[in-house]
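Homework help thread (please don't just give me the answer)

Our assignment gives two proteins as sequence + structure token strings and asks us to describe the second one. The first is just a warm-up. Here they are:
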Amino acid sequence: MTDAQETAAETALRTTGGAPPDDVEPAPIPLLEPRDGIPPVVATDDALAQVIAAFASGTGPVAVDAERASGYRYGQRAYLVQLRREGAGTALIDPVGCPDLSGLGEALAGTEWILHAATQDLPCLREIGMIPTRLFDTELAGRLAGFPRVGLGAMVESVLGYALEKGHSAVDWSTRPLPEPWLRYAALDVELLVDLRDALEKELDRQGKLDWARQEFDAIASAPPAPPRKDPWRRTSGMHKVRRRRQMAVVRELWTARDKVAQRRDVSPGKVLSDGAIVEAALAVPANLPALTALPGFGHRMGRRQLEQWQAAVDRAKDLSDAELPQPGQPLNGPPPPRSWADKDPAAAARLSAARAAVSALAEELNLPQENLITPDTVRRVCWEPPAEATVEAVSAALAGHGARAWQIELVAPLLTRALTATA
């Protein structure tokens, strides 16, 4: 980090750490160009081999980022991978031309990867063979350190005093060739990640939270891939309007038909048929093609062949027997919604209220979000089905069983124990 960056970082961290801010904060410095220029996009095996060799011989942690084409393409695959490491510089890799980056992943084995919001990028990196064993998540570090805004641009600005360009985050990264301004933006995303990581590590250490962060990072790195979501059609936007089982079947059939078309065409499902149109069709259950065409989202711009496939999906739902219709709501895996606790189990509702108040107070005292201190789902599960004996040891075991880390258990177990015993 340069002297100017060091000064800016120390000033910003003092202000976020509770010390009175300066009367006038300096304006952030626009970061317009990568310090080494925009590197060429790596899209061949030979070029990839050179990058692998360079990054294998680099030193220190490696900054990693990935760009997807959400809203444009089917799925969440990576369309550009950016890396930066001391001694290797910055690399921009095209996973379309180089779909297997396992060799690069192996070359970086044991190296700490720096990512911002790691859980967003890890799934698409895993698909192309890049799986870290150690990581530092600058977004999560910012949350634990108590920063009010933890987006990458906000963090770089408040910690390092630089302003990143924000104009290309939601573009179609599957575009080829990628325009130079997009490549500049992508390279700048990893330009200061190492500097940001170092400054945040110092601040977490100052606040006594560095070990907490390391436990969180280890949990992310060791977490298995998320299983496929059960009944993903239930997440259709506007689904709360759909009450009847036959209508739910229409949503399911249209969602499934749309997903097959989107996957075949490699486009975002929303570009094939909107969620709003699916819900309108489910509420109306149109009897025929003219009735479907009259609904919002199904109009003159849609070809007859498309309309026929959507009406066929509606007809399939109409032909299902009652036994084949989906059940209202998903099977619960855990406690019921808290709003129903007072009626179902008043004692559990009292436990939850006491536990929430205690967790909220401690989170405020520690200057971090409640959900990072302990997940709300974990609190609900422990309060709904508490241990037979409400001791700190038993509550600690229950928290561990729900995936809480050691630092969380140490802080939260005594609070929950008191909440459970006070309302017994």
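The one we have to describe:
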Amino acid sequence: MKYLLLLLVVVGFFYVLGARRGRRPDASAAPRAPQPAPAKSMAQCAECGVHLPADDALPGRGGVFCSAAHRAAYEARDAA
């Protein structure tokens, strides 16, 4: 009889220990992946056709350009 009581105490101890472990957050869980940045709007240079972020594009008479040199070349050719 005393062995049965000892067995119940040991089983109860492991049951309580397991129940407490189940409530804790799992430290080995992988951290959340960072969210990707939202997509930027793109523009195409009217002179060479390269795509670039719209924030970096230079406006001109013929559209948007990737550099001041391309803007000047396009406007000089268009004015002639």
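TA reply:
I won't write it for you, but here's a hint about the kind of observation we're looking for: The beta strands are 42-44, 51-53, 58-60, 63-65.
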